[in-house]
Amino acid sequence: MRELRLVPAALCVWGAAIAVIVVGPWAALGLVAAVMLALLLWREPGQAIFTGGIGACSVALAWWRVAVAQGFNAHQGITGMISGMPKELDSGSWLLRLQVDGYPAAVPVFSSALPQGAVPGAMVAATGQVKDPTRPGVGAFVINGDVEVLRPPEGFAAFAAGVRERFAAAVVEHVGPHAQGIIPGMVLGDVSFQTGEEQQAYIDTGLSHLSAVSGANCMYVATAALILARLARGGLRAQLAAAGVALVVYAGLIGPEPSVLRATVSGLVGLVAVISSSRAEPIHALCLSIIGLILVDSDLAVNYAFALSVVATGSIVALSPLIYQALGRTGWPDIFVRVLSVAIAADMATAPLIAAMVGRIPVASVVANVLVSPVTGIVTVLGMAAAILAQISHVLAAPVLWVVGPLGGWVRTVAEAIARAPHATVEVGPALVVVCYGWILAGFIVARGRIRRIE
After folding, report:
1. Is 19 a residue whose pLDDT tops 70?
2. Residues 292 and 323 reside in one and the same domain
3. How many domains does the chain have?
């Protein structure tokens, strides 16, 4: 149970931030007090003190951020830096998120047109109608209006923008149109080449985590750096340093947005599991990540994508070994059973959240993820190699892109083929999903018990 010692603290930090944003600070303090009392009754005084203290910090930080946001005056317009790639909406308008000095959350800005040069890191001015947000969060307003670029990205942001532009140009030059959308997305989080129909296909098949950078992508990059350091006969510290530097640079290239933070943290947790679970248990690392991220950014507490990332990572660590043991007697190849176990675990845990978020679930997501799993790591690692070579010359990147192109095309082919199938998505509520998957999980537990008795 030592691995679970930070679970109460992580849940308390998360729940306290949600309570502050949705209900208010006094309800959040009541929640923290209730958790402390429960731990004291459980005869865990040390846990009670630590959990209560870290929970109170979460309340204080979220309370302060909400107060600062509510006191901010945006009626004369705002000036801020674009965080993350601008997103084109179904209506044809654009969504940009701006980081504004003195404001504790990203400001959503809806604009009918995207001006030239509106890229991550660019400084822009936004003016227009100030409205209340439609979703709970730290932020107190959104802006519907016009965006004007004041200056292009500077420093590392300018370097990252140049990397993305040169890689995108190389992809357009050397990869067929079928894979031009997915490869920049999987490698550098650039979804600007993806059409609305293509993005919807990834959503309907549970592959949206591949159409942009995910925790798995980050883990592939970190693992590749670790392997290179190991081949260079570096020690464990050198290997970890190489993996950490690779992750930081990779996250910087993609952009300083919440989804990148989530993906980076998920990648770190996966890397911990790959290196040695005896040194730092994956669940322990996941809890530390939850605590750290929510203390840094209280807005993540009410972010569905953050919840999906955490739940998927936790379920892969906790449930996939159980499912793997239950499927071990099928006689199927071991690598296939492992991939299937991971896909089932992630799908079971995230399906109720997806149902609550959009009112439907992708029923074939396990099949889709299993079909594309052999190529995802190759696309990410070789794609990064191509991105590096493209900074020198498109000619150098061409041979690598010729290999990556068909693999990226396979991901899109799987997504579009399954999305066209009848009942690829089913409208359902979260409660029914929990019940159905609960029975499936119970079946795996029973099967595991029978296998142990036979052995």
Report:
1. yes
2. yes
3. 3
The span from the CA of 383 to the CA of 301, in Å, is 32
Instruction: Please tell me the distance from the alpha carbon of residue 203 to that of residue 365, in angstroms, as a whole number.
Output: 9
Could you say which of 100, 126, 152 is where a domain stops?
152
**Which are the contacts of 440, defined by CB distance < 8 A and separation ≥ 6?**
348
Whether 84 and 220 map to the same domain: the answer is no
Mark whether 146 and 195 lie in a shared domain. Answer: no
Same-domain status, 126 and 250? no
| Statement to judge: residues 298 and 335 lie in one domain | yes
Full domain range(s) for residue 147 = 78-152
Closest CA to 247 of 267, 230, 229: 267
What pTM does this model have? 0.83
Same domain, 130 and 165: no
Do 197 and 104 lie in one domain? The reply is no
The secondary structure of 363-396 as a DSSP string is TTHHHHHHHHHHHHHHHHHHHHHHHHHHTT-HHH
Count of residues making up the chain:
455
Handedness of CA 321, 327, 333, 336 (dihedral sign): negative
451 confidence band (pLDDT: 50, 70, 90) = very low
> Token pair for residue 124?
């822009």
The pLDDT value given to residue 443: 59
| Backbone phi and psi for residue 339, each to the nearest 5 degrees, phi listed first | -65, -45
The residue among 252 and 144 whose pLDDT is bigger is 144
Identify the CA nearest to 209 among candidates 24, 416, 411.
411
3-state secondary structure at position 124: strand
pLDDT tens digits, one per residue of 287-323: 888 998 899 999 999 988 888 888 888 888 777 787 8
Cα 227 from Cα 242, distance rounded (Å): 9
Q: CA-CA distances (angstroms) from residue 347 to 202, 204, 284, 309, 322?
A: 15, 13, 22, 12, 15
Q: What CATH number has the domain bearing residue 119? A: 2.40.50.140
Q: How far apart are CA 103 and CA 83, in angstroms?
A: 14
Q: Which of 70, 88, 120 is the last residue of a domain?
A: 70
Closest CA to 404 of 175, 169, 214: 175
Q: Rounded to whole angstroms, how far apart are CA atoms 291 and 455? A: 41
Instruction: Give residue 98's pLDDT.
Output: 94
Please indicate, yes or no, whether residues 310 and 368 belong to a single structural domain of this protein: yes
